[in-house]
Every structure is written in C-alpha cells, then in structure tokens.
Amino acid sequence: MPGHLGLYYGGRWHEPIQGKYAETHDPSTGAAIASVAEASDEDAIAAIAAARSGFELWRQVHPLERARILRRIAAMLREHAAEIALLDAYNGGNPVRDLMADANIAADLFELHAGLVTEMKGNSIPMGPGALNFSIREPIGVVARITAFNHPFMFAAGRAAAPLAAGNAVIIKPPQQAPLSTLRLAEMIGDMFPPGTFNVLTGADVGAVLSSHPGIDMVTLIGSVPTGRKVYQSAASTIKPVILELGGKNALIACADADPDEVAEAAVQGMNYAWCGQSCGSLSRLFLHDAIHEAVLTRLKTKIAHYKPGPPGDPSTTMGAIVNKRQYDSILGHIDSARAEGAQLICGGGRPTDPALSHGWYIEPTVFTGVTQRMRIAQEEVFGPVQAVLRWNDEAAMLRDVNSVELGLTCAVFSNDLNTAHRIAAAVDVGFLWINTVSAHYVGAPFGGVKQSGIGRDECLGELLSFTREKNIHIKLRPQPRLQSA
C-alpha cells in the first residue's frame, strides 16, 4: 500500500477536501507507518451522496446475483489472509499468528449471508374474501458501520456482509488507530459493486456526521460504552435504528466440581492474552470457588507464562502490543488503582524488561487476587491484559456480584453438574454464554449484549434482517362481475 492514503467512495479514491492527513503507527515501535486522510464533514456529505446513488443501483441486483458476488469476495479474502494478517499486526499490534484467522472469519460471514439472501421473507395476513394483505422486506438504505481496532479487518469486512447481502450501500468508518487493512479491503473489493455501494471514510471525527446525517438510514458501532452513548444520541436526531456492540466486564464462574486445569486453561484463553486482553468478550473477572481457588491459581500462573509480549509481525510471538499510548496509559492506571485498593498482584503489573521492547506499548499479563466487587478493577472494563480473581462459596452472593456491573456481554460457567451449569446460566444477565468452554463465536449464532453492552445481534439471520425494513401491502380485490342471463 502507498504511504499516503485517501478516501474511497463513489467507486474511486479521493484526496480529502480540506487536505488533512494523520499518521498511523506501529504499536510495537511507536513509529509512523503511513499518512491517512482525515475526512471532513464535506467529505462525508460527498460520500453519503455517492452511497445513495450506489444504493439505488445495488438494490436492483437480483438477490442470487448479490449472493454470487459475496461468495467471490469470500474466496478473495481467504486468498489474502496472510497479507491481511501481517498488515493488521503492524498497524494494530496483535500477533500475526493469531490474526491469520480474521480474514477467514470475515469470509465465513460473507458465505453465511450469501446463503441467507432468500430468507428475507415477508408474511401474508388472512383477510377473508375480497382482500389480500402481505408484507415484504426491503433494504433499509445506506448503512454506516463504525468498527473497532482490535480486529480491524475482520470487523470491517465481516460486518459489511449482512447489509450488502440485504441490498444496502455501506460506508465503513475504520478505527483511527488501525485503518490500513480496511483501506486495503476497499482496494480489493470496491470495483465488485456498482459505484457508491461500498465506501470507506477515515478520520477521527467523521463518525459524528455519519451518525446524525439524514442521508444515513442506519448506523452501527463496535466500540466503547461512552462512544456508544454518543452514537445513540446522535442517531436519535434523525430517528435511525442502531446496532451497538459495546464493552464487557465478563465473568468466568468456576464451580466447586470444575477441573482446576481446565479452568486455568479457559481463564487464559478466555482473557484473550494474545490480544493483550483488548477484546470486548474477554473474561476479565474470575470467580473461583473456594474448593478449587488455590489449585486454579497455581496452574494459571504456569499457563500465563506462555504469553510473552513481542513483535507482532514475528510468527513466534504469543502476545502483541497495546494499540496506542492512550490505551497503554489507561491500562496502567487501572493496575495502579488495583494496587491502591488492596488487591494482591501475583504476576505481571507493568512493562516487560526486555530492552528490545522499550519503544513499543507493551504490558505483561497481569493477575490480581484478593479482589472484591467494590474495587474499580472489578467494575470497569480495562480493555487490557488484566484479570481480577474473586473467591466465592455462596452461589447467591456470587451471582449478585456477577450481575452487579452495568455491562452484560459474555460469561463462561464451568461445572460438571448439568443442573448447576444451567441454573447459573439462567441467572446470569448477559447476551452470550459458554458452558465448559470459552471465547469462540459460532457462525449463525446471535452475538450481542444486554444492559449497557449494546443493542442488536450480529453474525446471524437476525443481523441480516435488521438491515431490512418491513412494508405492508393491502389489496382490495374487485368482485367478479355477474354473468348476464340469456
């Protein structure tokens, strides 16, 4: 990719109208690696106009032809998986070995929604003789999708699949911290659609215009709770629907009969340490029953030693870098707060000592024990490699603590008793829950949160239908004229 990157809309590349660019960086070194256009309000308005024209063309394409195009895109994404993984590693800080899956997951979502285009069905309503009443589903229009930095390509590509399958035009606003792979996506697939159907706008402030402009029919966000509130309020000015996939302060609940080794392995996998814990689904609170508490911690410290921060582009790296200095400082602030409130640090707690990593934003895997639910580290999403361990022996009290946070995205329950697992699963207030496993998403299974973790569901038929609107049609049938007798 060139080092000076513009905006993509209307089927071609544009320089920003005000001529502003911002540097994007490699989190492992802090070095600038490209200059990316800063879209202004004028750029956004031009892109929205192009998207409205693209929508009118794309909506006329037969659904099965749209599906064929989406399947071709899926194949292309798989072919470029290694290239995309390396680009996201250098721009986002996560290990290339783990990012190899992201393009393939995005391809899975293109294939899913390609296969669902004939499921955008309406209904008929009985009216008796003399009338016909039915509903149809139409594409909603122009959709703005604001994506996150922890899986830049997977979110940009994968979250474009459903609105495109439904016949909408899309404007992707990639993360300011890691926009490069989304711009590469535009290079790859932009000319596979009518001009204006697929668009990319970069810039720190353009999300506000996309959320409020009347030419945008729906806006979605993967991001923080504060950003979600801003998008929701902005979208309300034009009464447009939203999908919000926001933060999580997620719990792993280990019961007395759970296997300590299995729980410890699940704890490190569920925390997404390879991603430095920068995942909305990370299991950052470990509720360990007294009966297995010490056994799990012993194993946990051994397993965490596998995760050593290192250069994201090195295939042997098991844990990458924090995305930028702002996030790095925020994580260290939470670590300092936990110490000040009396939590006991059992591993990590700061920068790695390797001098080769001194210029990047690296933090060691960090675990605190002796945590109570009143502590900040148990209440707030850290979005970093920091886990809080809480002991329990009273199920009702434990569940009150689990549900006491404002967020409700994911949870994992470990128990060898089916009744116990189901009872706890039913009592936890989240949108997505695992029993005796962690972390995985399942193509076709709805993913999303409750409470302040968001609105709407992704990765399923419901996501596709959310990008349609229902229209009811009523027909009054004319009575058959009587035949004149001879």
Task: Please provide a written account of the structure.
The model has no long low-confidence stretch (mean pLDDT 97). With 486 residues, the chain is α/β, with parallel strands linked by helices. The radius of gyration is 24 Å and the shape is globular. It has helices at 41-58, 63-79, 81-92, 96-115, 152-165, 180-189, 206-212, 225-236, 260-270, 293-304, 325-340, 376-379, 395-402, 418-427, 461-466; strands at 4-5, 7-9, 12-14, 21-25, 32-37, 124-125, 131-139, 142-146, 169-173, 198-200, 218-222, 242-245, 251-254, 285-289, 344-347, 366-369, 386-392, 407-408, 410-414, 432-435, 450-451, 454-455, 468-476. Helix 2 runs antiparallel to helix 4 (96-115). The protein has 2 domains: 4-246 and 453-472, Aldehyde Dehydrogenase, Chain A, domain 1, CATH 3.40.605.10; 251-435, Aldehyde Dehydrogenase, Chain A, domain 2 (3-Layer(aba) Sandwich), CATH 3.40.309.10. Strands 15-16-17-14-13-19-20 form a 7-stranded mixed beta sheet, sandwiched between helices. Strands 10-9-8-11-12-22 form a 6-stranded mixed beta sheet, with helices on both faces.
User: Per CATH, what is the topology of the largest domain?
Assistant: Aldehyde Dehydrogenase, Chain A, domain 1
Computed over alpha carbons, the radius of gyration is: 24 Å
Counted by DSSP, the helix tally is 15
What are the segments in which pLDDT stays under 50 over at least 5 consecutive residues? none
The CATH class of the largest domain is Alpha Beta
Number of strands: 23
- Assembly state here? single chain
Instruction: Estimate the helix proportion, in percent.
Output: 25-40%
Percent of sequence in beta strands: 15-25%
What number is the mean pLDDT?
97
What overall form do the CA principal axes indicate?
globular
**Class by SSE composition:** alpha/beta
The description of the largest β-sheet is: 7 strands, mixed
Identify the CATH homologous superfamily of the largest domain: Aldehyde Dehydrogenase, Chain A, domain 1
